[in-house]
Amino acid sequence: MRTPLMAGNWKMNKTVDEAVAMVNELKDLVADAEDVDVAICAPAVDLYAMNEVVGDTNIDLGAQNMYYKESGAYTAELSPSMIKSVGCKYAIIGHSERREIFGETDELLNLKLKTAFANDIVPILCIGEKLSEREAGTHFDRVKFQLAANLSGVEADDVKNMVLAYEPLWAIGTGKTATPEQAEEIIKFIRETVEEMYDADTAEAVRIQYGGSVKPHNVKEIMAQPNIDGALVGGASLEAESFSKIVKFK
Ligand code: PEP
């Protein structure tokens, strides 16, 4: 059985004080959450102070990005050991905003993924199609292409432990959610593609989240889908009460 992962992606929101205040509130609200993993992927400057607060609670931390080199002349980038030193278990790799606004390529994301595995960081790899691709009916081809390119040379054992996040670009921050059936259809396809690329055990083990305007009011029906193993949550993760309702979706 796959344990669902509810991960908040705060994006470029919250100062250190705001971040600490929110995790202090959240840790009490989610302390009794059962059979679910919880993570907050916060801005890099917030992580050190957040790590002091989350301690041995059930909240894990994640970075929103990570570079593939260990150190050197890469101004403004973060290495795997840097994010681990502030308590990160996870790193989001290839969020659509990184791909679209910052021009991150599939080749770069493949290097980042391999670096995450080599450093015992669990990557949350985001894949998903644009509205034009959904309308043209090429969304299955799009995610298949991203999986092949981003996972090129990645071993099955690493895939079993990673997280995939299906995030259709047209549903991110738009308030427009994929229907549970649309999400299930393509996430099932993603799992089948992992099986084709690897094997049935790997496909069964890998956690696949849905992301795109997940809110307290729609999380339950999304989580009722058999192939959906959690959510990557932007807007609704910025407030402790709404995120705790998503974590405790049952
Ligand atoms: C995201 O940024 O990964 C996301 C899913 O955002 P939102 O929940 O706000 O749509």
CATH architecture assignment = Alpha-Beta Barrel
Q: Enumerate the strands of the largest sheet in spatial order, edge to edge or round the barrel.
A: 1-2-3-4-5-6-7-8
Spell out the helices and strands N to C.
EHEHEHEHHEHHHEHHEHEH
What's the Cα radius of gyration? 17 Å
Q: Please work out how many helical segments DSSP would assign.
A: 12
Mean pLDDT, rounded to whole units?
97
Q: What do we call the CATH topology?
A: TIM Barrel
Strand coverage percent: 15-25%
> Helix- and strand-based class?
alpha/beta
Helical residues, percent = 40-55%
Identify the overall geometry. Answer: globular
Which compounds are bound in this model? phosphoenolpyruvate
Overall strand count? 8
- The named CATH superfamily: Aldolase class I
Distance between the termini: 16 Å
pLDDT under 50 segments (min length 5)? none
- The figure for the number of domains is 1
User: Largest sheet, described in full?
Assistant: 8 strands, parallel, barrel
| The level-1 CATH class | Alpha Beta
Tell me what you see in this structure:
This protein has one domain (5-247): TIM Barrel (Alpha-Beta Barrel), CATH 3.20.20. Helices cover 44% and strands 16% of the residues. It is built from twelve helices and eight strands. It has helices spanning 16-30, 44-54, 80-85, 96-100, 106-118, 131-136, 139-150, 156-161, 180-197, 200-205, 219-223, 240-247; strands at 5-9, 37-41, 59-63, 88-93, 122-127, 163-166, 207-211, 230-233. It has an eight-stranded parallel barrel with strand order 1-2-3-4-5-6-7-8, surrounded by five helices. Helix 3 links the parallel strand 3 and strand 4. Helix 1 (16-30) packs parallel to helix 2 (44-54), helix 1 runs parallel beside helix 12 and helix 7 (139-150) packs across helix 9. Bound molecules: phosphoenolpyruvate. Phosphoenolpyruvate (PEP) binds at residues 9, 167, 172-173, 211-214, 232-236. Phosphoenolpyruvate is lined by residues 9, 167, 172-173, 211-214, 232-236. GO terms for molecular function: triose-phosphate isomerase activity. Pathway: Carbohydrate degradation; glycolysis; D-glyceraldehyde 3-phosphate from glycerone phosphate: step 1/1; Carbohydrate biosynthesis; gluconeogenesis. This is Triosephosphate isomerase. Its EC number is 5.3.1.1.
